[in-house]
Amino acid sequence: MKKYIFGNMKMNMTLKDIEIYIEKFLPLVSASRNEVAIFPSFVNLMFAKQKLTASKVLLGAQNVYSEPYGAYTGEVSAEMLKAVGVSYVIIGHSERRKLFLEKNDAINTKIKQSLGQGLKVVLCVGETKYERQSKKFKQVLEREISEALRGLYENELKNIIIAYEPIWSIGTGKLPTQKEVEQVSGIIRNEIKQEYSETASKNIKILYGGSINSQNAKTFSSIPGINGLLVGGASLVAEEFAKIANV
Ligand code: 13P
Questions:
Q1: How many domains does the chain have?
Q2: pTM for the whole thing?
Q3: Taking a C-beta distance cutoff of 8 angstroms, is the pair 124, 93 a contact?
Q4: How confident is the model at residue 231 (pLDDT cuts 50, 70, 90)?
Q5: Is 165 a residue of the active site?
Q6: Among residues 6, 11, 17, 111, which one has the fewest Cβ atoms lying within 10 Å of its Cβ?
Q7: What atom in ligand 1 is closest to the CA of residue 210?
């Protein structure tokens, strides 16, 4: 089955780096059956879009602002992203929650803005090490999901993918067990069932993210209930990310 393989490049890569990267990457993934997307920084989006035009690789943004336009110095709107050919936007990444103090209500507004412009959303959720150890993670995940999706209709869920990224696994090389990821997929699907329906719960796409590389990509993308991967560090090397994209 088709998997969703997304590369969150975070604050890495200059224009030149992106050019070299895409030229290497495209021929390596031309036969991939998966939905592959790269998420470079805002300033590289327009250029990346031009380079990707002749390929099936999609473009994503790492963030978006919660208001449609106006006096918000330094911010980027969903309409602007749509206009440069962005398909997906990551919302609620733990780095934004922690470093930029993003709260669930702002995440909810960002999701609504993005869907309103026809963008697809990758909503990130995940627990800290402490929350996992103290067994609070179920509660944390349920809350992140229900507050992020507040006021959304069931038919809008087809444009939302939920990425489970345990914070303690991001950039650390520490991985949850396959059972733990499967369990979280169950928690997420159950929350969607409570808030929406059995059908919505079955149909929602869930990605795993945190310390994925070409060695473990197959294992983690094949976990029952998991539809793909959100990759950070390993998406920065074209050959490495291509291997993951071809799982
Ligand atoms: P790493 O793959 O570097 O652990 O990062 C995961 C991530 O944060 C993707 O959004």
A1: 1
A2: 0.98
A3: yes
A4: very high
A5: yes
A6: 11
A7: 4
